[in-house]
Amino acid sequence: MSTHTPPLQATHVTPPHIQIRRRHAPGSAGPSTLSQSFSLGPADVDISDTSIGTPTRRRVTALSTSEQGNMGMHGQLSPRVRSNLARSPGATLAPGSEPRTRSRSRLSEVFRPVQDEDMDDSDAWTMLDSMRIWRSDAMTHHLYETAAFWANKILDWTGDANDAFWLAQAYYHMRHFVRAERLLTEPLPPPRAPLLDKGKHKASGERDGHADEDERKPPIREHLACRLLAAQCLMEQEEYEDALEMLGVQSSFGETDAAATRPSTDQGIKVFSSMCYLRGLLHLRLSSPIEAKESFMEALALDVKNYDAFRELIYGQMMRPGEEWEFISTLAYGSQLSDEEAAFVRLMYISKLRKESHVKEISAAGRELAVKYGLGENSDVLVSIAEELFANYKWEDCYVVTSKILNKVPGHSEALTLQLACMHHIPRLHSAIYALAHSLVRTEPHEATTWWAVGMWYYSGQRWADARRYFSKANLIDQRFGPAWITFAHSYRQEGEHDQAVTAYSTAARNFPGSHLPYLFIGMSYLQLSHSELAEEYLATAASYNSTDPLLLNELGVAAYNREDYLSAIEYFQAALQGASRMQGSSEPWAATHSNMGHALRNLGRYEEARSHYASAIRLNPIDATAYASQGMISQFLGDVRGAIKLYHQALAILPQEPVATILLEMALTEQVRTLDPTTLPGLPAAIVDKNLDPFSVPKGNPAFGPLPIELDPLTLEEAGDASRISAQGGSSRTVTQGGSGRTVVPAGRADMSAMSMSMSQASYRHHHASVVDESSVMDIEED
């Protein structure tokens, strides 16, 4: 979660008719210059519009809840440092009467001093004003002990809720959450500051008179910002129910639609929006994702500048892709921002949407940000480009872009996740994962991406149990880190533990209700378990989220194939291949889809088309044993038993333990021996007909099967030169000159081959699915 720090005292652009004059310490030789201090002081900045300490400003407690909620934090709780710009341009300082500021800087001679004029005594600085400067500067410099030390004294003097808020901020940054929460929820003591009576500007509590201690209210009842900070402290203490009760389980503002059309009164982030965002985080901690989603949507609708709410919705995948587009593109940008600001914010948000729908519009937004706004080298714009490349399976290009981002912004979480995924898919970079993970453990040991990187190193090495241990550690650090949940489940499925895998996928589905990937992977697991009906239910759910994912279309085709609906299967496989071709990315992951298409075509008797797809599968993946065995099956169907035997041997050379190829090879060899005279097979010596033959005395050799030995049997060569007759599957005979003796081949029975065809198809799916799904699944993890 984000913390709310006091606003920096940033330099403001001053209108040309106003001359900034500097104050110098009383009794000093001359006027002070611009650089009297390392940090900007009250005379350096113009924050008069937001300071509550000036007499002309009404107290925030007099504002309505609606008015407070539509202001930024600075608008209602200022550090109360004052600027000389608060005075009229004609007011001047009397020489020697200026209040003391801070010590001179070594750069004080760089700027030309400006002679100050007389100043009204009402603008004299008190010690309280100086101490507030110390407190503000200490917060800016992250000196929280210093800030708390001086803020504590200021609060004892003033007893004001404004000063209590800034002391609580210091406690919050020091992780003293109980102390900060108690300070904000208990009544403040009355002011007791005798020294301040000499000053011209008293605290707000003093201006209102000394109220009785029993009548004083706790800060959370005076300022919404104090209530927000107290709720944040409760959340850090894991008191989620109490924090939600303090904020309200549901929005109590009752004016979301009206407030969404109004800009912030001080150009800051509306406190209403921050409260809604915090309410969403609390709902997430309490495992209520639907309520959390509604709170984040309300936070972003109230203030489109609240990027934290946007990030939870989009990167937390709490909305479906179509719902994302409709919500983000119709926010009230124009009502809350100027025309120029509204156009820019809208483009930035659209460029960061998921690249699953409205891809052209998202790409156009990224190009406009690069060309019109000069953000082509900005890390967030580059991440959007990398996400689009990754979604299109262009891992090499994506790796180049993410490397560029990480060189500029080390540890960028989105870029780092994408780069690790790309390195997993590029085999030559597997060893580099170790070096990257080791560096992350040393530099960022508290980040979830660090331990996910360690897990990816083991995952790439197929050490599933070790990988799972580090994925689990990443989940403990950040329960909203989607890649760790998905790869954690993948590691179970790789070990064949499908029940545990389905449980982990189901948890991911609850955590990321807008993503189709968990449902897809559950369906894939059930397909591997042969639970086709359950698989189709989950795949149909995934299709309702994203119907164009090629991987999902492939799985739908497999489900249709399993119920023997081959025409539907072919349609799904064809759609998957068309979607993959439009991506213009790596084609290797789609070798299994080509193989699956071949199975469906073969079962419809379209052998030549099937052979073409098997050839495509082998071209994309030369070590695809199932594709070789499937081609051998088609050869055997067409009567070319010898060609089938050769292909079966090629398949077994790649995967010696392939059970289906082994059975098919045995069938082919049995068919060949059973239907042909063993003594007439090409390559056998003629003397084999002699029952008293000594096998060790017969020379070998046949020119049809390779180089001949030195000693040859003439009878063998003579009889091996005849034509052989091969019987085609349909019963007609044809003559094929093969350099062997005449033979007649009778194909195996149609029923036997059909049974083996189905078995082959299922085994083909299991084998290729295990390899390709692993690649495709991990590839899609980082889009969550």
Task: Explain what this protein looks like in three dimensions.
Residues 1-61, 82-123, 198-211, 704-713 and 715-784 have low confidence and may be disordered. Helix 4 packs antiparallel against helix 5 (161-173), helix 6 runs antiparallel to helix 8 and helix 26 (517-528) runs parallel beside helix 28 (550-562). It contains 36 helices and 2 strands. The protein has 784 residues and is an all-alpha fold. Strand 1 (724-727) and strand 2 form a beta hairpin. The radius of gyration is 38 Å and the shape is elongated. The protein has helices at 65-69, 73-76, 127-140, 144-158, 161-173, 177-185, 204-207, 224-236, 240-247, 256-260, 271-285, 289-302, 307-314, 321-329, 333-336, 339-351, 359-371, 379-391, 395-408, 413-425, 430-443, 448-460, 464-477, 482-494, 498-511, 517-528, 532-545, 550-562, 566-583, 591-603, 607-620, 625-637, 641-654, 659-675, 714-719, 750-781; strands spanning 724-727, 733-736. It has a two-stranded antiparallel sheet with strand order 1-2.
Shape: elongated
How can the largest sheet be summarized?
A: 2 strands, antiparallel
Question: How much is the average pLDDT?
Answer: 76
Q: What share of residues are in beta strands?
A: under 5%
Strand order of the largest sheet: 1-2
| N→C terminal distance | 19 Å
The number of distinct helices, counting runs of at least 4 residues, comes to 36
CA radius of gyration: 38 Å
Strand elements, count: 2
Percent helix, as a range, is 55-70%
- What structural class do the secondary elements suggest? mainly alpha
Biased composition (Basic and acidic residues): 195-217
Pfam family, one: TPR_8
Region (Disordered): 1-107, 188-217, 723-747
Biased composition (Polar residues): 1-12, 30-39, 726-738
